[in-house]
């Protein structure tokens, strides 16, 4: 079983919105084989709490245009690690220090990387760097 086309399309839309807000190391993982609750984890980071929140705002704004709203949102007030749960896709926007500490890519390293088609090869760089660690 692999992630649905609609989940991948939503992940790509969210990734594009994150990239427009200058998110770093954007990567999506197909967790559908390992996790019954979601198809895709999208992970992005930023160097400051303010930028984490700006990325979250950009993602929510873009996905709301598609009439998508998170069923759950956590961590917004702290701005260190914000989780947006859209059921089939779970978005993690983390402060870069927290991203290194929690290393979600390493925890889910057995999951395939989703091609986000960002054009700047951001997802591929993140996948390669996580594989070499």
Provide the CATH top-level class.
Alpha Beta
**Helicity, as a percent range:** 40-55%
CATH architecture: 2-Layer Sandwich
The total domain count is 1
Biggest beta sheet summary: 6 strands, mixed
Q: What is the tally of beta strands? A: 6
Q: List the uncertain runs.
A: 122-133
Helix/sheet category: alpha+beta
H/E topology pattern:
HEEHEEEHHEH
End-to-end CA span? 27 Å
How would you name the CATH homologous superfamily? Beta Polymerase, domain 2
Number of helices: 5
Percent of residues in β-strands: 15-25%
Strand order, sheet with most strands: 3-4-5-2-1-6
CATH topology (level 3) name: Beta Polymerase, domain 2
Question: What coarse outline follows from CA principal-axis ratios?
Answer: globular
* Cα Rg: 13 Å
The overall pLDDT, averaged over residues, is 89
């Amino acid at each position: 079983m692999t992630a649905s086309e609609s989940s991948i399309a939503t992940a790509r839309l969210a990734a594009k919105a994150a990239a427009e807000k200058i998110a770093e190391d954007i990567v999506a993982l197909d967790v559908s084989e390992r996790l019954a609750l979601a198809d895709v984890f999208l992970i992005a980071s930023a160097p400051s709490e303010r930028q984490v929140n700006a990325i979250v705002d950009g993602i929510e704004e873009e996905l709301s245009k598609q009439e998508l709203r998170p069923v759950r949102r956590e961590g917004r007030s702290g701005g260190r690690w914000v989780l947006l749960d859209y059921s089939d896709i779970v978005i993690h926007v983390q402060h870069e220090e927290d991203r290194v500490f929690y290393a979600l890519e390493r925890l889910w390293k057995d999951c395939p990387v989703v091609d986000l088609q960002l054009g700047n090869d951001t997802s591929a760089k993140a996948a390669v760097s996580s594989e070499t660690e």
